[in-house]
Amino acid sequence: MLRFAMLSAALLLPTVAWAQSCSFGVSAMNFGLVDTLSGSSSNSTATLSVNCTGLLLQRILVCPNLGTGSGGATASARQMLSGANDLNYQLYSDSARSVVWGSYAWPYPPTAPGFALTLNVLGSGSASQTIYGAILGGQATAVPSTYLSTFSGSHVEFRYRATPGNDCSTGAGSVDRPTFTINAIVPANCLLAIQNIDFGSNGILGANVDATGGVSITCTPGTPYTVSLSNGTTGSAPTARKMSKGVETVTYGLYKDNARSQVWGDAAMPGSTVAGSGSGAAQNLTIYGRVPAQTTPSAGVYTDTVVVTVTY
After folding, report:
1. Does this entry carry the keyword Nucleotide-binding (predicted)?
2. I want to staple 232 with a disulfide (CB 3.0 to 4.6 A). Which of 121, 144, 241, 266 is the partner?
3. In a shared domain, residues 171 and 195
């Protein structure tokens, strides 16, 4: 007798879960040398890059939340720090720098600029976004130094999840925390504005003719400076400068004081320059001019050019 036995076996296969996974990187934002005396803003950018894997054709919402950074923030600006000194800046999601880049966990502003990434038929995909930065104008009192803010840990919360929606107002989804820095250098700097000296119209030069002009100097806080005046086009000394009309001249001098006793010259004459220290605000220096009594040349317009030099 033949007997047949039928064996049945159940083949159990492991279940594979294809959860999405994303990794991020952000380049440093380097503003370089920043002129805080100009009154205008300074711009820079950084690049956010993301690589994701998951199910083919899967749509992944990315919510790149950025907080204050290590420099902290005020109600209207993020800050970079150099010791106890700060420099105000802001991050934006648009090139016009009108929409602040924020975080659901930070009240100003309360959302991050989300964007969607759709994976390809192999279940992978990548994308990049530009982070726009601006150092705000009107910071003439910023001390010359190197300023820094670091984004890491709780300051960076890049959330991502598979969803058809665009809601970045919550902390839903997986998280990655890349680290990047924002830095700027405020160099020592000075700006000059000059007021010319006009001795007016005169007949006979039989007595002193006095007039004043000025130098307005704005330097970054704590920046020492020295202002010197050249001896003019044909002059040989601070009190023997010459205004010319052709070959004819009128002698004049430039001084630091109203009594016209302290000459204002250049480094070739020790003690004749004017020194100071910047505060971030304009400092006005008066130049006292005098045409002494002398032989009167023929009538006409007499001029000279004096070079103002600021050393800092």
Report:
1. no
2. 241
3. no
